[in-house]
Amino acid sequence: MGIVSVLWLFVWAGMFTDINYVRSPRIFSDFFTFFQATRALLPLLAIFICAILLMAVRPRFVLGKASLSYLMLYCFIGLMASAIASPNKTTSLYWGGLYLSPLLASWLAVSIDNPLLQIERIIKVNFFACLFVFLMTIPQTLQVVRGQAPYMQFYELPFGIGQMRVNGVGRFALIMAIYAFVQFMYSRKLTKYLWGFLSFLALLTLTYTRSRTSLLGLAVAGLLFVYLQGLNIRFFFVSPIVAYILWVSGYKWRAQENFEALLNLTGREYTWERSIEQIKKSPLFGWGFNADRLMLDSEHVHNSYLHSTIQSGMLGGILFIIAIISIWAIVIKQKILKRVRLATGEQKKYLMISIMILGFLTSRSFFESTAAFYGVDLFILLPAISYVYVWSQSHPLTSPGSEPVVAEART
What we know:
By secondary structure, this protein is an all-alpha fold. It has 17 helices and 2 strands.
């Protein structure tokens, strides 16, 4: 599996738990509380291990060349604000530490031997983690499909984990659909049918969540897939499938065939106004991590750029925006959307998955807090950014008009 994969599992371990389990007086008397408290601390352990390994590797961290650099600076500003300005410094520093853990693990992955392979392993860990959560939602989805339960805003997760909104379920479903569909298109024999079945389950779940951010991501990912494949008649069936899901789930069911309802922000604009008011009170460095929960009566900002700014101020918000823009600048400048067709084997699949994920999460970032705080979106986005960046560095354009043939390198 490799040390990077193990550390990425530690990063994931902090999901569906928090520091309150560590503070609980029942931590040593109740197994579930102890288990949750242990998981809550594993991402912090990952930071310690990553720091030791990075000192041994001594990577060159060049500011301005990678999105990861800007996200790291954003994180450090947020940690500083957490220690100075946060109304609850312990909680803010804890969530800031959690945010740092996948950044350091990603930095380690791109700094050791064969970084593309290391990132592929991280993407596989993400797949199995998302698959585990996705499968937990399937029974409730099937109840809705069979008419045994009404459309629900929340999914109840087993093992006492808690609830998940339909937007979260839709996100997991689309991640599964992207990964499984790309594998389906380039797999053979029995595995092809298994990937096809998973793609069907993922799209079925996505349809019944009626999640507009995930449906928007489906449209973006679908368009990117068709563009990446070029003029190939075999892949034209993707467009009508995506269009049908968007029409049924988004327009007919979610919006009740009312276009204005489809564009309704469901109260986000009021939260954005409150966020801006808090930003004005600490415009330069913000209020530290978890500021939305601490200062907006536990409300969620639902916008990556406002979320990053309320946590790290205007300085951190600008760095966060640059991080998103810079990876797309590399995609455009290096003509990666066209050069994907020249990649071979596993690299082609993972490059396609990474670009489609980038498209999905970038579109999602305007209506959800994608990668601005510790969470699933961050775990999925970081390896996608890293894979595209490392691939572009290892397969550069030799001249403005050139498109070199890409040979897959493995060690």
